[in-house]
Specification:
The structure is a homodimer of 340-residue chains. Chain A has 340 residues and is α/β, with parallel strands linked by helices. Chain A has 2 domains: 150 residues, Alpha-Beta Complex (Quinone Oxidoreductase, Chain A, domain 1), CATH 3.90.180; 157 residues, 3-Layer(aba) Sandwich (Rossmann fold), CATH 3.40.50. In chain A, strands 3, 4, 5, 6, 7, 15 and 16 form a 7-stranded mixed sheet that branches. Chain A has a 6-stranded parallel sheet with strand order 10-9-8-11-12-14, with helices on both faces. In chain A, strands 1-2 form a two-stranded antiparallel sheet. In chain A, helix 6 links the parallel strand 11 and strand 12. In chain A, helix 2 packs across helix 3 and helix 2 crosses helix 8. At the A-B interface, strand 13, helix 7 and strand 14 of A face strand 13, helix 7 and strand 14 of B.
């Protein structure tokens, strides 16, 4: 039986916010599974803000997507055919097989997941890329100390919500910036943040920051860039650290990203800004995943997922990242497990 | 005999470039020298770009100058009267006694200088604040490795010219940006820089940078900020480090300092920007001064001074810092030694 593979390709590079012309649904036949290969049926697809950067034809830390090729991204799937000694039918795996229903992988392209330890979706979130991003960005660059104040933008997202909880574990005062009262409520009530600021409804974010951070800002974990970053930069303490993780507010902006230059602030405060991507820490993933898993088991970390249903919802789910629709990790469920 | 003390006070805070209204020459009587105190006659006065920041009434890493008080700054003087066991008449000392001809100091306010080791003026330059700024900023933040490319703006100034030589000692390729052909010639011929770019005459600084840095930029030692910093930021390599030492191009600017935001660049390149001031390293001054002194003795470091003559030239010397007039350390000689 030849399987039909629904796929989503990059039809054209977006100018500004991606739209109906950006993505195209296509069908292909699934190739034969060669010796050493496995056939994976996609269960969950991850949509992440960094993928917007790969839609640009610009040099970056990761190769641009190619036009007319399947969008690549983190996924979870089930092995439904195996010509590899390393995998059996029914195994759950994760890898970068992207926005398609099936994928023929070489055994070394994917990593097995143990479904008995935690829900498999956590490997796209708190135990996966976004959890590790939070872990290394905060601890390796932000280095919060007990009693210091940590401000997080994009705080209700998958990375931000984990950053805040890890900062609390370190004994810091934690202030989250997010875009709805529901999100702020989640940060404070469910995650134990000390304060939250709704940037969409505030009249004066600098004033709100000053109230929420009476001792100034020691660490600013920046997921959004733009005006919000400018505002937090105005409240830094001496020796502040700024892990620069994302700039989601600017990813779909057509105009050049212009704002106050940071040099004088950095000098006056002897402050540090450091950009990073999770790939920098690949040789320490094991350490990070173990610690995150332990905190999860101990109940010190919690997480939320926003799960959309159906392969056809992937593009709109992706766009919702930029509309602030999700709390926690945003995923699309594509299929149920067959062999559970 | 009562001595008359010529002094320069901050008459008003400047808007933009300081002018004739900013400074005022006044006279005062020199106070009596109490037990434990010494009377110092000023020999040399240092003028430094960071002093412009102290003319603003704004919170910073160092207190603002007060209006109607003597401008404070690094100086060298000779002890002409001593009521302290620690100093004798004829001793040469350095301290922050500022823009005046005489200063009555407590013994712990000044540091003795040994004139037999190196010219005394080096303690305001390569063996003093600017040399230490170069040393710690480059080695502690920039961390150049052999074979890497180091770009320095304000390269012919007191800090920049030292940074470049230390980078050469580390085995780096060194590219200096400065504002005259005479300066570029000095960098390459006298200091051993590999390349120089005259930012005042170039048609396309990005192109010139790309040519001068065929392997990209690993370390950017930023003394100037503004457009030049923007240009260098566009050429960074992955894991680039940017010690942010000064932003002289913006100090006298009335308009807000606006430019391309750096967040996306920092993320794409996993780059680090860190502001600093030399005060951060006060517990390591001895280490720095020893190493600089050793390199100086070994002939691995050289320096140039631009020395103006006469107390009355101090304000114009200070303003010339912002007009790019000086090569190396800019000083004003106020008096000859009496007791040499």
């Amino acid at each position: 039986m030849v399987l039909t593979n629904n796929q989503i390709i990059l039809a054209e590079r977006p100018q500004g916010m991606p739209d109906d012309n950006t993505f195209q649904f296509v069908q292909a036949e699934v190739a034969a599974v060669q010796e050493g290969q496995i056939l994976i049926k996609t269960l969950y697809v991850s949509v992440d803000p960094y993928m917007r950067g790969r839609m640009e034809n610009a040099e970056s830390y990761i190769e641009p997507f190619k036009v007319n090729e399947v969008i690549e991204g983190g996924s979870i799937g089930e092995v439904i055919e195996s010509n590899s000694d390393q995998f059996q039918v029914g195994d759950v795996v994760t890898g970068m097989f992207g926005w398609q229903e099936y994928y023929v992988a070489n055994a070394d392209e994917v990593r097995p997941i143990d479904p008995s330890i935690a829900p498999i979706t956590t490997h796209l979130g708190i135990l996966g890329m976004t959890g590790l991003t939070a872990y290394f960005g905060l601890l390796d660059i932000g280095k919060p100390k007990a009693g210091e104040t940590v401000v997080i933008s994009g705080a209700a997202g998958s990375v931000g919500s984990t950053v805040g909880q890890i900062a609390k574990i370190q004994g810091a005062r934690v202030v989250g910036i997010a875009g709805s009262d529901e999100k702020i409520n989640y940060l404070i009530e469910d995650l134990g943040f000390d304060e939250g600021i709704n940037y969409r409804t505030t009249d004066d974010i600098r004033h709100d920051l000053a109230c929420a951070c009476p001792n100034g800002v020691d660490v600013y974990f920046d997921n959004v860039g733009g005006d919000i970053a400018d505002a937090v930069m105005s409240q830094l303490n001496r020796y502040a650290r700024i892990p620069v993780c994302g700039a989601i507010s600017t990813y779909n902006q057509k105009a050049p990203d212009i704002g106050p230059r940071v040099q004088q602030t950095l000098i006056k405060k002897s402050a540090l800004m450091q950009g990073f991507t999770i790939g920098n820490y690949s040789n320490r993933f094991k350490e990070g995943a173990q610690q995150l898993g332990q905190w999860l088991q101990e109940g010190k970390l919690t997480y939320r997922e926003t799960i959309r249903e159906g392969f056809e919802t992937i593009p709109s789910a992706f766009l919702d990242l930029f509309r602030g629709k999700n709390i926690g990790k945003l995923l699309v469920k594509v299929a149920d497990r067959q062999y559970e």
